[in-house]
């Protein structure tokens, strides 16, 4: 089914205020041959399928498959039946919440949207962060989970809005591999192998579509993760360095200084001072 012909911004300003509240994030393994429903969907629910297969049937509407490496969106008001692969466990991440400020125009736009999409690195990263937030209990009384869930929904929408400008599949495969292995010692060859291309071809793709190289992209993501962990956790700097994929604290400190102008400790202290002064 073709995507919507108009952008969200062309509907009305209020439609851009859609958010999800009271969100729940949960990794689940569905048993082979199991079924959910028929049930009334009362929330906006996003399902990322990591392995296996699920079949969604909407009463009076469409039926579609969600394969491993895809994501789907389930909308409120639908009576749905979900069946899972009989050949093995279906591993998935479910993120659901109550829609807040869902206008009729936005509801109609979402109804016209194709409900499935291949997982991009960004979709996978946002879902992973939502899961990690719940697991580490850094939820800010649920506000952070709601924010990440809302960001995931809008990223899903944005990727459809900009479908012609979507990155080539090989780049998305490379980015997904990078995001899933930030803590590990990986090489350009490893990334290229995950993307099913030669290292030279992957470099050309990244330069053309991302404006950098795969290796630089990897280190940029590690630096970003390191800065996030420094400012949002109390882990020792040496632990943050390892969690961000750096072999030594010295290398980590040098890259953080290059990126922010501050040492890791100074960056953390500056961030925490700002946070306390704004309370």
TrEMBL record:
The keyword Repeat does not apply. It comes from the Bacteria. Pfam families: AraC_binding (PF02311), HTH_18 (PF12833). PROSITE patterns: HTH_ARAC_FAMILY_1, HTH_ARAC_FAMILY_2. InterPro entries: AraC-bd, AraC_XylS_family_regulators, Homeodomain-like_sf, HTH-like, HTH_AraC, HTH_AraC-typ_CS. The keyword Signal does not apply. Residues 172-270 form the HTH araC/xylS-type domain. Gene3D superfamilies: Homeodomain-like. GO terms for molecular function: DNA-binding transcription factor activity; sequence-specific DNA binding. Keywords: Activator, DNA-binding, Transcription, Transcription regulation. PANTHER family: ARAC SUBFAMILY (PTHR46796:SF6), HTH-TYPE TRANSCRIPTIONAL ACTIVATOR RHAS-RELATED (PTHR46796). This is AraC family transcriptional regulator. It comes from Agromyces albus.
């Amino acid at each position: 089914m073709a995507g919507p012909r108009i952008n969200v911004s062309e509907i009305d300003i209020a439609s851009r205020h859609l958010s999800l509240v009271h969100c729940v994030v949960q990794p689940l393994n569905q048993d082979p041959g199991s079924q959910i429903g028929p049930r009334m969907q009362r929330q906006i629910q996003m399902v990322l399928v990591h392995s296996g297969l699920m079949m969604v049937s909407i009463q009076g509407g469409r039926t579609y498959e969600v394969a491993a490496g895809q994501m789907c969106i389930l909308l409120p008001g639908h009576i749905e039946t979900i069946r899972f692969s009989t050949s093995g466990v279906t591993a998935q991440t479910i993120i659901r919440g109550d829609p807040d400020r869902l206008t009729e125009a936005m509801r109609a736009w979402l109804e016209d949207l194709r409900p499935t999409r291949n997982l991009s690195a960004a979709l996978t990263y946002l879902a992973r962060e939502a899961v990690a937030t719940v697991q580490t209990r850094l939820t800010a009384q649920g506000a952070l989970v709601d924010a990440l869930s809302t960001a995931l929904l809008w990223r899903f929408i944005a990727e459809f809005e900009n479908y012609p400008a979507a990155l080539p599949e090989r780049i998305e495969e490379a980015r997904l591999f990078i995001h899933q292995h930030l803590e590990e010692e990986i090489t350009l060859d490893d990334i290229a192998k995950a993307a099913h291309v030669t290292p030279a071809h992957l470099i050309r793709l990244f330069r053309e579509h991302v404006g950098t190289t795969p290796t630089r992209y990897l280190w940029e993501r590690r630096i970003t993760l390191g800065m996030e962990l420094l400012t949002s956790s109390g882990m020792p700097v040496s632990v943050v360095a390892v969690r961000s994929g750096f072999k030594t604290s010295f290398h980590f400190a040098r890259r953080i200084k290059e990126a922010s102008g501050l040492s890791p400790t100074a960056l953390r202290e500056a961030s925490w001072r700002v946070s306390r002064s704004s309370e």
